[in-house]
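Posting this for the archive.
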Amino acid sequence: MTGHRSFFLDEALDGYVQAHSPAVDDVQQSLIGATAALGPLARMQVAPDQAAFLAVLVAAVRPSFAVEVGTFTGFSSLAIARALPAVGRLLCCDVSTEWTDIARRHWAMAGVDDRIDLVVAPALETLRALPAEQHVDFAFLDADKTGYLAYYEELVPRLSPHALIAVDNVLWSGRVLDAGAEDADTVALRAFNDHVIADDRVTSVLLSVGDGVNLIRLA
């Protein structure tokens, strides 16, 4: 397991959550181990229960085209790709070849590499290069927090009527409420959450899943 969990859960309650969520399989366990070898960076990997949550959302939406901004070593993209319908495609955006090489190996192990298009480049450039007529049915944002608002603004005009956007780390271990926390990431996350709830193009709910997930759809 990753050791990463909702910051407000104690060990016992986290264990209960994991015990009542889908068990990790061999591919996921291999990916967890490969990510753990990166040291402290491994905490950027979503927890298994959060990956299962993403899979449930994707299975319900049945996207033809999904986007992930911030792939890291591929745990979330593996869950998303496995839940896609037969015709579905996932575009993964990341800037690290080192991390996404780990993802690629595990996508192949799981037999979902043919559903995923990985672009290693600044995500904003990748999103802006999408064809104007390309609709997005599902998006997961888990990248640089200062870029969230720009990614969101590129995605919202492209959303299909039934689309969902899931945005990770929006509680930031509670620092969004810490008046003394004025680092760039915390400030950006506060601004992002405020922007979304005030945006009349969408309706949203901020969930206490993992480190906080803002779940957004068109109004």
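Residues 167 and 174 are 16 Å apart (CA to CA). The helical segments are 11-19, 26-36, 48-61, 75-83, 97-110, 123-128, 148-155, 184-198.
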